[in-house]
Specification:
heterodimer, A: alpha/beta, Rossmann fold, seven-stranded mixed beta sheet, five-stranded mixed beta sheet, 13 helices, 14 strands, about 40% helix, globular, B: alpha/beta, Pyruvate-ferredoxin Oxidoreductase, domain 3, six-stranded mixed beta sheet, 6 helices, 6 strands, about 20% strand
Chain lengths: ~350, ~180
């Protein structure tokens, strides 16, 4: 580990990707993450990397497809409307089993929306924003250090499952500054060359990378193979954080920025004698259903809080299986619920239960 | 210990820079810190603000409902943020620009003619650093040496001395 540096979230993600061995970045600027694109534009040419500003996000995702085919670590970053434009390509990449890292710094939507922090892209991120039977592994940092750490491992995860991985952040993580420590540089020369890449069939059998098979039985085989990988990801990749859950009588579930704000609410509530804890899913897909189910058996209710009108809460309900009441509070459109605002909501529900 | 401050003013008054220097100083002292900017379709002359939370432990929410302190550089910022200062907290006010009194009676008000002091050093542009000096002297949230170190790290070379001078004037301000 190196010394601490005070950086913006966008820069933290960019630098971490470079240290993870990413030397190819394609992007199209969009607030609130344009600084990440700028950072890569500044940094990559200096270290022998490739930066390219494409004509659109549709072009970007297909450039990622190309670079991934030759086995290089590649990344893009965008914000909500831009991420929508990439969905077709992501679906293609999932079917063709091409690893790449995407970063979506969410802003208020739908439509052009606004540029403030939001969490309205949860469905799109976790339920397949593009067409067909596929999944994207989704990592949701809540601090800048975590953004660094998750970005760093996201390339390994993408390669392990030969699948696109998404870092799902929001405008607050993108724009704020915090001290971080960066991990060591991966030696790009020493990265193992995958055995499926397209690098010329001279002296070996040809390889095929495609997202197409006209025969439904063959396509079914391909999809079942993908599902097998996804089952493995569900077994191995679930990540979450428990925060003051041991003696919790009530439970928050939230991710990213919202979870960070709730940690303050947990502390405020405990000062008033309300024993509340927090489970913070770090992987949104695969979602830590089992952990939340365990907790459901011993809390009075679960309150899911999101910067949206309620998306992750559906996964919480799936996890809980009716074992406790699942409540929701959210603010969409780029409004960030403040600690005291959520505390009041919590107190209202606690009062109801206690009566 | 955890202390939060909102720094607010016109775009161009250096409120973001003030917050960044303060944050960096806190980091040099091994403290946990978050710097959260307002951002949006603003232009020079529009309003800007940032929230800084400095803590001995990991900072939970970088979003603050009730900051302990506000540093306000213009009237719109005073009107916007005076309501939310914590009871017993502090309002640091640039009275070179603000010719109004606060409505709050339950907070301590520190009035600084920051532009005037800054102009004496050479430019009203460093009024932000004067305010920072006063803030640090009053709250002792970080040491002056850490602030100087942060300025050396963050400032353009030609402005380092001037900025440090302005902070020093701010530090002395409460004694006079």
């Amino acid at each position: 580990m190196s010394e601490k540096l005070m950086v913006k979230g966008t820069e933290a993600i960019g630098e971490s990707a470079i240290r993870a061995g990413c030397r190819h970045y394609f992007g199209y600027p969009i607030t609130p993450q344009s600084e990440l694109t700028e950072y890569m534009a500044r940094r990559l040419p200096k270290i022998g990397g490739v930066f390219l500003q494409a004509e659109s996000e549709v072009a970007v995702v297909n450039m990622l497809y190309g670079v991934s085919c030759v086995g290089k670590r590649v990344m893009t970053s965008t914000s909500s409307p831009g991420f929508s434009l990439m969905q077709e390509g992501i679906s293609y990449m999932a079917c063709a089993e091409l690893p790449a890292v995407f970063v979506n710094v969410m802003r208020g939507g739908p439509g052009l929306g606004d540029i403030q922090p939001a969490q309205g892209d949860y469905f799109q991120a976790t339920k397949g924003g593009g067409h067909g039977d596929y999944r994207m592994i989704v990592l949701a940092p809540s601090t800048l250090q975590e953004a660094v750490d998750l970005t760093y491992i996201s390339f390994d995860i993408a390669e392990k499952y030969r699948n696109p991985v998404l870092i799902l952040a929001d405008g607050m993580i993108g724009q704020m500054m915090e001290p971080v420590e960066f991990p060591e540089f991966v030696d790009v020369e020493k990265l193992k060359e995958p055995d499926w890449i397209l690098n010329g069939a001279d002296g070996r059998d040809p390889r095929r990378i495609t997202s197409f098979d006209i025969d439904p039985h063959n396509l079914e085989k391909i999809i079942l193979h993908l599902m097998e990988k996804y089952r493995k990801a569900e077994e191995n990749e679930k990540r979450w954080e428990d925060f003051m859950v041991d003696d919790a009588e009530y439970l928050f579930v939230a991710y990213g920025t919202m979870a960070r704000i709730l940690k303050t609410v947990v502390k405020l509530a405990r000062k008033e004698g309300i024993k509340v804890g927090l489970i913070r899913p770090i992987t949104l897909w695969p979602f830590p259903y089992e952990r939340i189910e365990e907790m459901a058996e011993r809390v009075g209710f679960i309150l899911a809080v999101e910067m949206s009108t309620g998306q992750m809460v559906e996964d919480v309900r799936l996890a809980v299986k009716g074992k406790t009441e699942v409540l929701f509070y959210g603010r969409p459109g780029g409004v960030i619920p403040s600690p005291f605002e959520v505390l009041e909501v919590l107190k209202k529900y606690v009062k109801k239960v206690r009566v | 210990m955890e202390r939060s401050v909102i720094v607010a003013g016109f775009g161009g008054q250096g409120v973001m820079f003030l917050g960044q220097v303060l944050s960096l100083a806190a980091m040099f002292e091994g403290k946990h810190v978050t710097w959260l900017p307002s951002y949006g379709p603003e232009m020079r002359g529009g309003t800007a603000n940032c929230t800084v939370v400095i803590s001995d432990d990991e900072v939970a929410s970088p979003v603050v409902d009730k900051p302990m302190d506000i540093i306000v550089m213009n009237i719109p910022s005073l009107l916007k943020f005076e309501k939310i200062v914590k009871e017993g907290g502090y309002i640091f006010m640039n009275t070179s620009v603000i010719d109004k009194e606060t409505q709050r009676k339950d907070v301590e008000v520190v009035k600084v003619e920051a532009n005037k002091i800054a102009e004496e050093i050479g430019s009203s542009k460093i009024a932000n650093m004067v305010m920072l000096g006063v803030y640090v002297a009053k709250t002792k949230v970080v040491k002056p040496e850490s602030v100087f170190e942060a300025i050396r790290k963050k400032s353009k070379k030609e402005f380092i001395d001037m900025n440090i001078e302005a902070v020093k004037k701010g530090l002395e301000f409460l004694r006079s």
